[in-house]
Each structure stands twice: as structure tokens, then as C-alpha cells.
Amino acid sequence: MTDIGFVRSHLEESRPAPHRTSGPLAWMQKNLFASPLDTGLTILGLLFLLWVVPPLFNFFIGHAVFPGGTVEDCRALNAGACWAYIYSEIEFFIYGFYDIDQLWRPNLVFLLGALLLIPLAIPKAPYKGLNAVLFLVVYPIVSYYLLAGGVFGLRVITTEKWGGLLVTLILSVIGITLSFPLGVILALGRQSQMPVIKTLCVAFIELIRAVPLITILFMASIMLPLFMPQGTTVDKFLRALVGVTLFTSAYMAEVVRGGLQAIPRGQYEAAAALGLNYWQRMFFIILPQALKHVIPGIVNSAIALFKDTSLVYIVGMKDLLEAVKTKNDSALEWQSSNTSTTGYIFAAMVFWAFCFGMSRYSIFMERRLNTGHKR
Amino acid sequence: MQKALVSIAIAASLGLGATAAHAAILDDVKAKGYVQCGVTGGVAGFSAPDSNNVWTGIEVDYCRALAAAIFDDADAVRFTSLTSQERFTALSSGEIDVLSRTTTWTMSRDTQLGISFVGTMFYDGQGFMVRKADGIESALDLSGAAICIESGTTTELNAADYFAANNMEFNSVVFVDQDEVVKAYEDGRCDVYTTDSSALAAERSKFANPDEHIILPEIISKEPLGPVVRAGDTQWFNIGRWTYFALLEAEELGVTQSNVDEMLGSDNPAIKRLLGVEGEFGTPLGLTNDWAYRIIKHVGNYGESYDRNVGPDTPIGLERGLNALWTKGGIQYAPPIR
Amino acid sequence: MTTLDTGRNDAPRVSFFNDPVIRGIIYQVVVAVILVTFIAWIIQNTAANLAAQNKTTGFDFLWRTAGFDIGFSLLPWSRASFYWEAFLVGILNTLLVAVIGIFFSTILGFTLGIARLSSNFIVSSLATVYIETIRNIPLLLQLFFWYFAVLKAMPAVRDSFTLPFDSFINQRGIYVPRPIPDAQFGWVWVGLLLAIIGVFALRHWARKRLEATGQRFPVFLTSVALLFGVTAAVWLISGASVTFDVPELQRFNFRGGVQLPPEFVALAFGLTIYTASFIAETVRAGILSVNRGQTEAAQSLGLKDSDRLRLVIVPQAMRVIVPPLTSQYLNLTKNSSLGAAIGYAELVNVFSGTALNQTGRAIECIAMTMAVYLTLSLLTSAIMNWYNARVRLVER
Predict the structure, then answer these.
(1) What residues contact C217, with CB distance under 8 A and at least 6 apart?
(2) Phi, psi angle pair for B104, to nearest 5°
(3) Which residues of B294-309 are buried (b: 16+ CB within 10 A; e: fewer)?
(4) What is residue C8's predicted lDDT score, i.e. its pLDDT?
(5) Across chain A, how many H-helices and E-strands are there?
(6) Reported pTM
(7) Quick one: CA torsion of C297, C299, C301, C307, rounded to 10 degrees?
(8) Is there a contact between C257 and C247 (Cβ–Cβ < 8 Å)?
(9) Which stretches of A230-305 are assigned E, i.e. beta strand?
(10) Is B145 on the interface with C (CB under 8 A)?
């Protein structure tokens, strides 16, 4: 063939390793001091941290009053967070007005929920189908009768007495479980060929998405009684639940619609060519692919619902935030300048923990389910 | 599909309770075994959960008296805490049987909302609370002040009327929730906090330093607070009204929770009639003849309830004033039981 | 066999019930009948309930005197104003806080979104911590926190912080002087308007020239000069002057000037902080969505850095950013209804709260409130659809 112009006759000396491509110093050079601007930003950032972190540390831990402390400690001049207050009122924050001698009932509900949810969330755990049925169908019924009582000699405890984190969790678990299928149905309805159904779904979705949740809750609490036949009453708890669920389902529907639109037409056609009917096409071919695409959106809606449960105070219910506010104002024996701040921070930390957990789990699932669509 | 059915079943069992539209309320209440009573979210002395989370207060006592008269059990009552915005719908829709929630009796409410006030449990009037340090002595000094008010109340209108009538200006800060009103005043957002003067006293008692705040002498409105029932059911209205009168009558006759059993042997015909020893006064109401005995036995008389919840020995510390019996210079007056 | 000659198949014969078209019609009729029955049932119940409660309905109450006070209003308001004026005041207050919130949350959100992508570890970590914290805490809780934090942090009226230009900050809000333009000042507005028209003309001309000759013209600097120059010149020539209504301490509060109450400040601040964390995520996703090849291609075309960003990267990123960004703006507007909880006189507070309670017209008040939000939302959607159609990738 052609001449080869140059053939190396001896090995090149191996060059020294590049100067600091690994190790903490190199990392710092690359990530902190890459350019003068970067250096400036780093210094500013460090100054900011120096300014913010020590007072925060002192407030949360250093000067904080932990359980065992007294209200006098909380009233001290430079006292930090008054965790002792949270500790002493924790029962109200978690259970609200629930009868104190019956607290084992909500505790059992929490425990059952955790026992069912954890295996459901771990991808490798067996018996997924059975587990899902237990969690989504059996568990709500059992929990309802456990909490409300009236069977097996359990004392009746009306929903008016439920409160605190219990209400927040019930509202969000049931709300998420119900709004998801409702959202899927609405999204399918919006894509429907039938004009009546399509119009109905579009109108519902757009109307709900256009107005603030607060007005929907107002409607549920003030107007719903007017819409029902005279003498019909709907439990307050149920009204709030319906309001929150309908609201979230409209958002879920839009998320799911995004997923449906991302499925290539070929999938619809191929499924139809196999002779599957509409529901078979949707449940076996389209939805599994579409939902996988929109997991982050679905989880975001779930997180939004979890946060939105704090608005049920509009209809006079005591969720976690409202329970904290109630005690902030009425726990006279704990009055100090940091009491209510501590209460708010406690509520914020609880909300944050749940929401952050959900969002991390969604990222984990997204990676796991990401089966070969990478290009 | 199965899931949908189950969820409907859950929804149904959670509380879609239908009661026949025109059945007597008393029959309904007897059938369910308790009185559903609408109260505030927490106004100390009137209706608020105590440290054991048991509802207490003068308005709560009224509901308990009602339950005692019907069931001989002061605990056969369930409480629904309502915001001021939803209280009337809750009553007219049948969610609650009686509303006992610092509600002012006004003509438009009585005639236009399909509800009836049974009486005036508490004669109140709107007042102003200010910080002592501001050195204000009269409400007429308040021109230009910032005022914290709860939304959806007669208070909001009275304040505007009062300032307009006296040619003064003010700046209102309106919250939907009573808690925020108080907190904003306490934190210095407003110079003045205005509401019914009894509630002012109740809130003042909760402040870290109650002595730093004073309640101005002016009372700018009439606020007769009373229990309310749905209009159209005379029997239920009469039960509500006479439960209230029985509380008053017992005080006037000196029948108290502790001496009611001895009083059964009293020779006073009025006491005999009240306690059902003589005459038939309970059965025409649809109750038993010892209905008033039950009330006093379980709850006590009006004066006892007053002293226990809002009287001078409580942190709220309200003198009887207008709420004393007519025999003692007040205007609380019950028609005779005969 | 003969049927094959026709070249097309007749629709397969199926039983009447299995025909998809007929089936679809049956489904729809059933749904429509159920829906109509349901609505009729609700209307009938409502009418029966209203009759039983002896309530009147209708919108005549809008022309009645309101009789209550509104703490913060952009329109003149007194207790003798009508209910429809209360409605307007509510709408304007909602829009005011929404516009301010949108403005600041956009700035903060873009900054944070870019910061989170920064190669500087500290900057990106700080942005991440901010976003992950704020996003996961309910807005209502944050609003309570900020409102009462703001109240506690501010001095009492008599100890107000004095700022330059006769401005004050205290627990009752921020007070700044109110400018009162005189009659001549109208000319200044006219001048400003002319300058703006001039800027547009200049841009048009500069682009034409660029396309024709390839020569650039410093449009931005000239525009700024034009705006300020013309306006200032007209101001001087017309002799217009502005006096100031300065806030003065009275017995309780400052009077005069413009007052921004703490409810407004806390609400705008809370909405900004909260929405910015969502906008930041939107911006980050938008920037990441632009393929790296686009940058390289632009560089190989010889575009300079600023042109590369302006003409290649930003337009593509914006196509991804704008739709979710708009929905964040809408969310912010809807979330402003939480101002009712901290006493800001926005639409829900004024109209679904006070007006509803004083009139008892629940259906009318809530319907009107919802209609306002619905209109805002539909308007935004319409604009968005137009924008999407304009920037859509035209493929093949």
C-alpha cells in the first residue's frame, strides 16, 4: 500500500503524571478557585456561611433548650430553640384532640402503614401485588375503623377529634391514592375522541387548575351544604379530603397527559393492530410507558398535595400546622420569645422531611425505571 | 373498578349521613344519641378545649345542659369547631343541631338566614384594647390608629361605623383567623385590638403581661350573644330556649348543682315545678318532667356556669354586670315556669 | 372473491352494540344525561335550600354600601364605597402583589438556577440547599413565619428607622414620600412616549442595516441615551416640577406618603422566596436541555460569545423554560390568595371573606372570585399558546 512516512523506533519516555488532577488540592483548584471570579465567589460564599452558620448552630443546638429544660431556660436572654416545648406538646402535634387513653390506635395505624409501605417502596421485596392490595384497599378500611371506632367495642372517636400530623398524613395518603387514578382517567378523557367527554374533562381540569385551592376549600365548606338535599350532612374531614383530591387530580391529569403525548403514535397503532381493545391498549401498552416518563411530575404533584394539606385550616381543621399554631397561642405555660418560632420550625422540619424523602425516592425510582431509553 | 367501589364505600362510611329533611330535630337527636353543637375554634371562657382537651366554657355548658335535658348525660354532645364564616351554613344545612358560638343576635341574621336565636346567653358589647404605654384613655383618642379585626364579624362594621360617626380615621388590618388578629396586635402591628369586650378580657388574660394592656371604657355596640337553632322547628326551638331559661330560673331560685337533690324536697312550689316534682312541664317539650333537674344536676345553674368559666375568680375575670339576674341589677330574666 | 375487485373493504359487519361509532355516541349520551341530571339536581337542591333559609340571591348587592374598612387600597376607599368597588380593590391588590412577586422571583430564580449549575462548589451547594429547603416547606407556613418575623424584627412606630429621602421603616410598614406631579408634568410623559417610539424605530433601522451591510450599530447605548435625553430635555423645557407628600409622625402612625404595610411586604417576600426555588429548577432544566453540540456549532460558525448566548443558546433554552415559567407565574398569582391568612387585603380576603360574610351571598361572591382567577388563567394560556406557536421547532 502506500508508504508509511514515520515509524517510531523507540518508546517515548513516559511523561510525569499531570500536575494534580486528583486529590483535594486539585479538586479545590477546579471547583473553588478556577478563575478570579470564582475565587471571589468562593470567598463571598465562605463569608456568608461564616455569617449564617454559627448563629443557626447556636439557635438549633448550641443555646437550644432540650427536653428536660424548663420554660425559664427558654425565657433566658440568649436562649435558642425551645425544644422542650415541642417535647411537652408533642402528643397534640401528632394526634390533635384524639383521646389520650386511645393513642395506641393511631400508633397502630402508623405502624401498619410503615410496615406495608416500606416493602412496597423497596423494589426487590416480594409479593408486590398482594402488598399493593393490602396497602391501597385493606389498609384504608382497617385504619378508618381503628381510628373512628364503633366496631369490636372500640370507642367511637369522631373525625372532629382527629388532628395534627395524623390529619396531615391521612389527608395526603388518601388524597394521593385517590387523585392518581382520577388524574389518569381525566387525562385519558382529555385525549378521548368523544367530544362530550373530552369537553367535560378539559373544562374540569382547566377550571380547577385556574383557581386557588383556598377558594375550592371555601366552596367545600360553605357552598357544598347548599348543593346537597336539605338535611344531608357531609363530614368536614371528608369535605376537605374531596376538595384536596379533586384539586390534585387536575394537576395529575396534566402531568399524565404530558406522558401520553410523549408516546409515539406507532405504539398506539401497534397496540390496535394486535387487536387489543381500548382499555387493554391503555393499561398494557400506553400507560406503563407514559407513566414511567412522568414519575417526577407525579411525585411533584404528590409533594404539592402534601404541602397543600396545610390549607385545611380554612375549613377549621387542625392539621399539623394549625395544631402548632394553636399551641403557640394557647400554651400559656410555655410563653417565651422563641416558643412560636420553635413551633413553626418544628412543623417546617416535619413537612420538609416528608417532602424531601418523597422527592429523593422519585429520583431513585426514575433511575431504576430508566430502561434503555437513553440515546 | 374494585378500588373505586371500595373508595365509595369508605367515603360513605366516613360520614355521608343523611337525615330526613323534615323530621323533628329532637327525634333525630334522640336517634343518634348525642347533640351536635357548633362552637368556636377556641375562645377561653366561652368555648375552648382545656389542658386535657375537654371542651369547656359558658357556651359549651349550654350545649351540655341541652344534652343533659335530653339524655340525662352531659357528655352526650359532640363539638364542631367552626370559623365565623361557615357557622350559619353549618347550622342551616343540618351539620350541627345548635350553634353556640359567640354569635351576635341581629335582625338580618334572625330574619334572612333561616335561623332563630333562642335568647341572649351573654350580653356583650364591642370594646377596644390598647397598650397602656400609649397613654390612651378614651376611644375618642384613637383617630389615626391601626386596628386589628377579625374578618366576617359585626365587629368589622361597628368599628367602621363608630369611627365614621366620630369623624375619625383608622387603618384596619383584617385577618380571617382570630389567632392571627391577637398575635398581630401583640407583636405591635396594631395600636388597637377590637372585638366583644368579654373576648378582649379573655385574650388579655392570655398575654404574657396582661397589665401592659387596658380595655377602654367605651362600649360601642350592643352584642347580645346567644345560641341559635334552625328556624321552623318550634319544638326544638322551645327546648333550646327553655334550657336557657331553666339555667336562669335555677339561679334565681337558689338551686345549685350541690343542693339540687335536697331541693327536690323543697316546699317552694316554683322549685317543685322547676324540678318536675309538681306539674307536667317536660313532656310537652318532648322531654321528661325532670328535664331541668337533669340540667342542674349535670351542669349547674347559670350563675355557677358563669363563675366557673368567665367570673371574677377566673383568669378572664368578668363581673356579672348586665348578665346578673334582674333581681340583682342585671337584665337576665327568665319567664316563669308555670 | 368478487369483493376483492372493489379495491376496498366494506366495514366489517358487527352487531349494533359493538360498532365503535354507535358505542361512542351511546357513551356520550349517557355521560351528558348524567351530567345534566346532576347539575339540575344541584340547582334544585340549592334553590330549595335558599328558599328554606329565606335567602335572596342576585348581584344587586354590588351596588350597596359596603360599610367596612379596607386597610390597603390602590383606589380611594371609604366605608361609603360600594361592594363592586371592594371587588376592584381586591383584584388590584392581588395583581399588585402578583406583579411585584413575579418580577423579583424571576430575577432571584434565574440567578439561583444558574448558580446551581455553577462549577463553583460553594455557590452550587448554597443554591442547592436553598432550593431543596424552600421547595419542601408549605408556603402558608413560610408566610406565617415571615410575617411574624418581619413584625418582630421591625421597631415600634416611635423608634422608626429613618432612611434617606424622608422614608421610614417600622412595624406598620415602609413609608416613602408620594410624588405629586404638577399640571406641566403631562409633557414629560409625552416625551417619554416619543422616546420609546424612537427606540423601536432605531432598532428596526439598525437591524435592516445589519442585514443589508453587515455593519453593527450600538443599539443598546443609543437607546438608553435617547430615553434619558429626550425625557430630561422635555422636563427642563416644559418646566414641570414634582412636589412630595412627605410622611409625618402623628399620634399613632405616620400620615401622608405611600405606605407599604408589612402584610404586603411579607406576602411579596414570601411569594418571591418560594416561587424563586421553583423557577430556579425550571431554568436549570432549560439550560441543561440545550445540547452541548449547539454551543460547539455556534463557536465553529465564528459567533462571538455574547451572540452565541443571545442567538443560539438562550432562544433554545427559553423554549423549554417559558411554558413551566408561566405556570409558575400563575401559581404565584393563585398563591397570593394565602395573603388572607396574614391579613393582606387581596381578592379572597376582601371579597370571599369580608364581603361574603357581610352580605351572606356565598354563591355570588365565590363565583365572582373564581371568575377572576379563571380569566387570568385563560388569558395567560392564550398568550402562551400564541408564544408556543411562534417558537415551535419547525421540523421538516
Answers:
(1) C206, C209, C210
(2) -80, 135
(3) bbbbbbbbbbbbbebb
(4) 52
(5) 18, 1
(6) 0.84
(7) 110
(8) yes
(9) 232-234
(10) yes
CB-CB contact of B270 with B335 (8 Å): no
Cα gap C343→C350, rounded to integer Å: 10
Q: Inter-chain contact A222–C366, Cβ cutoff 8 Å?
A: yes
Tell me the CA distances in angstroms from B137 to B128, B158, B217, C303, C343, one per residue in order: 11, 20, 8, 76, 27
Percent of residues, chain B, with pLDDT higher than 90: 48
Which tens digits make up the pLDDT trace of A84-115? 888 888 888 888 888 888 888 888 888 888 88
Interface of C with B in 58-97 (CB under 8 A): 67-71, 79-80
**Nearest CA-CA distance, residue B196 and chain A, Å:** 19
Three-state SS at A226: helix
How far, CA to CA in Å, does B41 sit from each of A207, A315, A331, B82, B87? 32, 11, 15, 6, 11
- Tell me, yes or no, if B80 comes closer than 8 A to chain A by beta carbon: yes
C98/A315: higher pLDDT: C98
- Cβ distance C262 to B161 less than 8 Å, yes or no, reads no
Chain C nearest-CA distance from B57, in A, is 26
Mean pLDDT of chain B: 86
Of B10, B94, B179, the CB nearest to A144: B10
Taking CB atoms and an 8 Å limit, are A310 and C141 in contact across chains? Answer: yes
Inter-chain touch B3–A181, beta carbons under 8 Å: yes
Using the beta-carbon criterion (under 8 Å), do A238 and B15 form an inter-chain contact? yes
User: CA-to-CA distance for A164 and B329, rounded, in angstroms?
Assistant: 46
- In chain A, positions 235-264, which contact chain C (CB-CB < 8 Å)? none
Is C261–B191 a contact, with Cβ atoms under 8 angstroms apart?
no
Please give, rounded to a whole number of angstroms, the shortest distance from the CA of A216 to a CA of chain C. Answer: 9
Q: Note whether C344 and C41 are within 8 A (CB).
A: no
